[in-house]
Design a protein that fits this description.
The chain has one helix and 59 strands. The protein is mostly beta strands and about 725 residues long. The chain has four domains: about 5-130, Immunoglobulins (Immunoglobulin-like); about 140-235, Immunoglobulins (Immunoglobulin-like), CATH 2.60.40.10; about 240-335, Sandwich (Immunoglobulin-like); about 345-710, Regulator of chromosome condensation 1/beta-lactamase-inhibitor protein II (Methylamine Dehydrogenase, Chain H, 7 Propeller). A five-stranded mixed β-sheet has the order 2-11-10-5-7. Strands 30-31-32-34-33 form a five-stranded antiparallel β-sheet, with no helix packed on it. It is flat, with a radius of gyration of 41 Å. It starts with a helix and ends in a 5-residue tail after the last strand.
Length: about 725
């Protein structure tokens, strides 16, 4: 009968015994004795079965039948076939033991007698066994790979190969052949593996030429995984070399851009002569970023140049190391480049500003009382928490466009997902809550937007299919539809929607601009529609009647661009003429409509001066700015703290030129300050600075500027 059949029979007996053996006459554990009959001290191959483990249980010299015995592996991670056995009529029980797979670990099984009535156990016997490795299965490198030594010299660590069985146990007595290399030589090339499974070559001398040397190791007559093993070593060249930066140090390009001059070094010998053929390795050591052509050989002039160096996306110091190691001479040098901010788009909010860099990261600066900068800040300005220099918006997201309001910021990712951060008391973050956030949160609804806008607390966006959605405060119907929610906004219960709702009317829009308590949009054909509050004629339809649905703007003008402010709005027609309507007398003399009067207008009124604009922008502080087709910036309206940028603090009823001779691609207006972007992607600010919104490292309105100043961190 085979071992396994014996065990099966024993297992069946166990089942019967467990069902029937509960006699109060059964001997107690302290009345039992157990003898090992056979199976102790065996030797076997890892992972294989041993001869049966056989024990005999007696009491007072008499065999004990039906006694429950537990066979348990306590060392070596092997296994037993049944685990629980019953003694037969002769007091005999047996078990099959399969060894574990680690030959270095002691193999042990304990046999415990179990008292049926109480479940008590007692160890009566212990079996041990010695596990031997299986047959040779794999060949691998154990030591001496990837070394460097001078040409014609021996590597410091002789290469060694390891032979193991399928479980990783070392196999001794295997012959390993270290084949003669193509260049250089070896000694004692036929070692045999020891008890650790390792065979070591006597020595390996590299060839006479600098570069990579290879040595192969194989086990003749065996088919092993990993055979042959390849050892490599780098033969290095001359001594006493010096490395010097010769070009490309100290550059100040924009973050995320490639430096215009690729860094290069020169290697010279002790006499100052250039050394050719030495490997130079370039690596980024600070600032992030990346390089191409990291490994180069010096040319006939001893010069090696990195392929390209692209800086990281965080402003500040970037470092690139260039180093060499010939084995007998080594050295390194550092190149430093300072990554500067540049912007593709900017937006001015009420007391703060933001911009998107060419690498799609967002930075904001200024007032931060509600988290509108998108990051926690520790600075305190005249009016509260702030940052007077740009800080990165947290969360690691990339953005394509950004828009700022009164304590809230929203942005679109390159794929059209909307995120908002800052004040959320009116549901303006659009995430289904009224909890403010200092980090971007996703706008609910999984909508894909083409444009997004916020001026006060009621953002709007247009999806890629042309559908307009708005969310946030809905006190005057500015969301373009009725909403069922109520938010506590500025201490009062106010209609709102904490998630986007579609603007009613079914009109297809190209863009929507959100104002204070109203919104306006342009259809693809350039027709303007507005909805919401109309107290001062901001809907532009010739009345002061509010509307929760879009109404057409009077005069039938065809617009290319619109911008809504707190309670006024301006647009540029397809011919470049600027028109504004709504409030024109917020402080008794503002003149933000730019038509030479302080009278409100319920229909579009032409901006005076006959200028041709590409875009205009209306903010929350009763002043308006625009950029002409030549890139000149003009502003009009309130100028109490220099928001018009003309060098004065005198308000103007008509456009005045922004001084400084800068060429702008866009200008945006905030509360009492302005942010402009030049055609070379630099952000300039002017006006109020009580919240650090000029971004120049100072705050308080005593540091306001009536002329453009450059935001810090730029070239």
């Amino acid at each position: 009968m085979s071992y396994r059949t014996l065990v099966v029979v024993a297992a069946a007996t166990v089942v019967l015994g467990l069902l029937s053996c509960d006699s109060p006459l059964a001997p107690r554990l302290d009345q039992l004795s157990m003898d090992v009959v056979s199976g102790n001290g065996q030797t076997g191959i890892v992972g294989t079965e041993l001869a049966p483990l056989i024990v005999k249980v007696t009491s007072g010299g008499n065999p004990v039948s039906g006694q429950v015995l537990n066979f348990r592996v306590v060392s070596g991670n092997g296994s037993v076939y049944g685990g629980t056995e019953l003694t037969d009529d002769h007091g005999i029980a047996q078990e099959i033991w399969t060894l574990g797979t680690d030959a270095r670990v002691l193999q042990k099984v304990e046999v415990r007698a179990v008292e049926s009535r109480t479940g008590a156990q007692k160890v009566f016997a212990t079996f041990t066994a010695t596990a031997m490795p299986d047959k040779a299965f794999s060949l691998s490198a154990a030591a001496g790979n990837n070394q460097t030594a001078a040409v014609g010299s021996s590597v410091p660590i002789p290469p060694a190969a390891r032979v193991a069985d399928q479980y990783g146990n070392p196999v001794s007595g295997v012959l390993v052949d270290f084949l003669r290399p193509a260049s250089g030589s070896v000694t004692a090339r036929f070692p045999t593996t020891g008890t650790d499974g390792i065979a070591t070559v006597g020595s390996w001398t590299l060839g006479p030429t600098a570069g990579t040397n290879m040595l192969l190791a194989t086990a003749p007559g065996l088919i092993l995984t990993g055979d042959p093993v390849t050892f490599t070593a780098t033969a290095t060249g001359p001594a006493g070399l010096t490395i010097t930066n010769i070009r490309g140090d100290g550059q100040t390009p924009p973050i995320g851009s490639t430096v215009p001059i690729a860094p290069a070094v020169q290697l010279t010998d002790q006499s100052g002569a250039p050394v050719a053929g030495v490997v130079v390795t370039f690596s980024v050591t600070a600032g992030g970023g990346s390089i191409t052509g990291a490994t180069q050989l010096t040319d006939g002039n001893g010069i090696a140049s990195v392929g390209s160096w692209t800086l990281g996306i965080v402003p500040g110091v970037n470092e690139l190391q260039a180093g060499f190691n010939t084995g007998v001479s080594r050295g390194a040098t550092i190149f430093v480049a300072t990554g500067k901010l540049t912007f593709l788009t900017v937006s001015a909010g009420n007391g703060f500003g933001c911009g998107i860099t060419p690498v799609s990261t967002a930075y904001c600066w200024g007032f931060n009382n509600t988290g509108q900068l998108g990051a926690s800040t520790t600075e305190t300005c005249q009016f509260g928490p702030c940052s007077s220099t740009p800080v990165a918006v947290s969360g690691g997201l990339t953005f394509a466009t950004i828009t700022t309001g009164d304590g809230t910021t929203c942005a679109l990712t390159p794929s059209g997902s909307a995120y908002c951060w800052g004040d959320n008391s009116g549901g303006q973050l659009g995430n289904g809550t009224t909890t403010s956030s200092t980090t971007p949160v996703a706008v609910a609804g999984n909508l894909t937007f083409a444009t997004i806008s916020i001026s006060n607390a009621s953002p709007c966006g247009v999806t890629t299919s042309g559908a307009a959605y708005c969310w946030g405060v809905n006190s005057s119907g500015q969301l373009g539809a009725t909403s069922s929610q109520t938010c506590i906004y500025f201490g009062a219960a106010t209609p709102c929607s904490t998630t986007p709702i579609p603007v009613s009317g079914g009109i297809q829009f190209a863009v929507v601009s959100a104002g204070g308590a109203f919104s306006c949009g342009l259809t693809p054909s350039g027709a303007a529609y507005c909805w919401g509050d109309n107290t001062v004629g901001e809907l532009g339809n010739g009345t002061t009647t509010p509307s929760t649905t879009p109404v057409p703007v009077a005069r039938g003008l065809s617009f290319a661009q619109l911008s809504a402010g707190y309670d006024d709005i301006c647009g540029v027609t397809t011919s470049g003429a600027a028109y504004c309507w709504g409030d024109n007398n917020a402080d008794g003399s503002a003149g933000q409509l730019g038509n030479g009067t302080t009278m409100n207008s319920a229909t579009p009124a032409a901006v005076a001066g006959g200028l041709t604009f590409t875009a205009v922008n209306v903010g929350l502080g009763d002043h308006t700015c625009g950029v002409t087709t030549s890139g000149a910036a003009y502003c009009w309206g309130n100028n109490v703290l220099g928001g018009l940028g003309d060098g004065s603090q005198a308000s103007s009823l008509t456009p005045v030129a922004v001084v400084g001779g800068l060429t702008f691609s866009m200008v945006t207006t905030g509360g009492l300050h302005t942010v402009g972007l030049t055609t070379d992607h630099l952000a300039y600010t002017w006006g109020s600075n009580g919240g650090g919104q000029l971004g120049v490292g100072t705050s308080a309105n005593t540091h306001a500027s009536t002329v453009p100043v450059k935001v810090l961190g730029q070239p």
